[in-house]
């Protein structure tokens, strides 16, 4: 056998015969690592035995799902973990990856399933300390393996015969066959992941696999992009270490909806599933408890409508350049909306500081929230409250016209379910939706919405 030395970029997998400071493929610096390739001499080829079937004759697989009992996790997965699936979970450091995996292991073990938790980052005592803190009583059918050898993991699978395999994290494991490539090397990571996929999808004994993937500085899974193509589901746990709110997003799911979002609250006892986000992202007030600067809208996270509260604070500026602050929406979007409000709504803000946020820290990704943002600012400028049972769902164009947004039926029905009395939308947006409690008011222009508020305020004075 012949030994050849090559250099592989750890970011994109580009291969070179010599070391280079900068990768010509992805442009990253100092990412090349040395790897020895062993080439076997050519041997006589043997005929390959093929097993062909007509597609119409193949039996459809009705894979059983493993329900964890964690409402938001099961929903993002499409109704639980498919028995022969491989899922990768990533997040920034301290985001709660290991905590969520340990909770999944605990719930499935209590349901009677066998779980193997293999960790290459922490010792078994560290995992036990976390389990004692967030779980309490631990079921007998959770096995722990603290090792960085993927060969040891596969041997443990044969001994324990688990229903779920957890790897924490895939970048810390290596196969002896590909020595001297170190753990974290693109080749080792891909080969370890491939070995896990083959183990999970073995027709003789199907298993579910959940592996943690480290995140690089670009907020992507470390290693080759091919790793995401190899697995069935890619989950991203969003949220910084100091934030209570965590969002679980499915960026890929072969067995469910892509783009589905679940919400968790990070507590001392681990991640708590927020099963009713519409109540989490609004402030509960009494009917007679009115505050200025607050407006309600409905956002879509995946396939689910979520009621969100937008809060604004407008104050007098004593500097040449007033502040425009928002941590929950793009700053350019805020500047655009303020320009529309000044020009089309005749609300002067050139000498005002404007601060916009949402209750619970929910990021305003959709244009459906734009009308609610403007109305919360108007309420703050006038120091007049908007009724807490009113809601606004529309985009606002540069002309001041209200624009329709998708999925209006589900948004309206969610507000109707929660008991909202008046919903203001764009002209023709409501369609033929029948609501039991809420009144839908269609407006064409931003001025029409402001006129409704002015009429309400005049009635309050009377």
TrEMBL record:
GO terms for molecular function: ATP binding; ATP-dependent DNA damage sensor activity; damaged DNA binding; hydrolase activity; zinc ion binding. Keywords: ATP-binding, DNA damage, DNA repair, DNA-binding, Hydrolase, Metal-binding, Nucleotide-binding, Stress response, Zinc, Zinc-finger. Residues 62-215 form the RecA family profile domain. Pfam families: ATPase (PF06745), Zn_ribbon_LapB (PF18073). GO terms for biological process: recombinational repair. It comes from the Bacteria. InterPro entries: AAA+_ATPase, DNA_repair_RadA, KaiC-like_dom, P-loop_NTPase, RecA_ATP-bd, Ribosomal_Su5_D2-typ_SF, Ribsml_uS5_D2-typ_fold_subgr, Rubredoxin_2. DNA-dependent ATPase involved in processing of recombination intermediates, plays a role in repairing DNA breaks. Stimulates the branch migration of RecA-mediated strand transfer reactions, allowing the 3' invading strand to extend heteroduplex DNA faster. Binds ssDNA in the presence of ADP but not other nucleotides, has ATPase activity that is stimulated by ssDNA and various branched DNA structures, but inhibited by SSB. Does not have RecA's homology-searching function. PANTHER family: DNA REPAIR PROTEIN RADA, DNA REPAIR PROTEIN RADA-LIKE PROTEIN. Belongs to the RecA family. RadA subfamily. This is DNA repair protein RadA. It comes from Anaerotignum lactatifermentans DSM 14214.
